TrEMBL record:
It comes from Paraburkholderia rhizosphaerae. Signal peptide: none annotated. Belongs to the GST superfamily. Residues 90-208 form the GST C-terminal domain. InterPro entries: Glutathione-S-Trfase_C-like, Glutathione-S-Trfase_C_sf, Glutathione_S-Trfase, Glutathione_S-Trfase_N, GST_C, Thioredoxin-like_sf. Residues 1-87 form the GST N-terminal domain. Pfam families: GST_C (PF00043), GST_N (PF02798). This is GST-like protein.
Length: 208
């Protein structure tokens, strides 16, 4: 039974295409053109009430009935639970996955996303204020990640959904004006992730 992925070619959309590829789950893509406000159409809002991609519909939910899921972190947890992959069973091993997934959802996404926003502004004074504030926080987050990846091969021990979540945003490092050479452990991990054929497929799949 094929999962439908509602997405657009953005970091949050890529997190899910990478996870689906890594988990070997069949899926089809339903592009939601957020530039054309398709995220406000009633049919999409009925599965994603916050009018944001990504969302999925799994025709074979936990009880065999269809289920929809919105919010990329919730989708990753759902898929991890469903497949038993990239989400450890033991609570001790699961805790770092949850920590780093929440770290991504709360900071390493919202902050570089603000850099993308302010970098696109035309007014120089508006740009300066926003870029200074959110670039500093984005770099701090890369520093935290670099420190962590100096101690562990993947973000939370073994390869997990936390890596997929973080990679979606690290993929846009140039757009948020970060040079990965400044964060050698992040660079090592980034190259290792992109050397995985399923990750590459998740970034190659057409989402728009
Ligand atoms: N917390 C959400 C954020 C999703 C999000 O920001 N999606 C953006 C694209 S990356 C979007 O759909 N924007 C359309 C809008 O805000 O109207 C998640 O992780 O799923």
């Amino acid at each position: 039974m094929t999962i439908t992925l509602y997405a657009w070619a953005t970091p949050n959309g890529r997190k899910i295409s990478v996870a689906l590829e890594e988990m070997g789950l069949p899926y089809t893509v339903k592009p939601i053109n957020i530039g054309n406000n398709e995220q406000f159409q009633a049919e999409f809002l009925s599965i994603s009430p916050n009018n944001k991609i990504p969302a999925i519909v799994d025709p074979q939910g936990p009880d065999g009935q269809p289920i929809s899921v919105f919010e990329s972190g919730a989708i990753l947890l759902y898929l991890g639970e469903k497949t038993g992959k990239f989400l450890p069973k033991s609570l001790r091993d699961r805790v770092p996955v949850l920590e780093w997934l929440m770290w991504q959802m709360g900071g390493f996404g919202p902050m570089p996303g603000q850099v993308h926003h302010f970098a696109a502004l035309e007014s120089e004074s508006d740009r300066q204020y926003g870029l200074k504030r959110f670039s500093a926080e984005t770099r701090r987050l890369y520093g935290v990640l670099d420190e962590r990846l100096g101690k562990t091969e993947y973000v939370a021990g073994d390869l997990s959904i936390a890596d997929f979540a973080i990679l979606g945003w690290a993929w846009r490092h140039e757009r948020h004006k970060v040079d990965l050479a400044d964060y050698p452990n992040v660079q090592r991990w980034y190259q290792m992730m992109f050397a995985r054929p399923a990750v590459q497929r998740g970034f190659d799949v057409k989402l728009d």
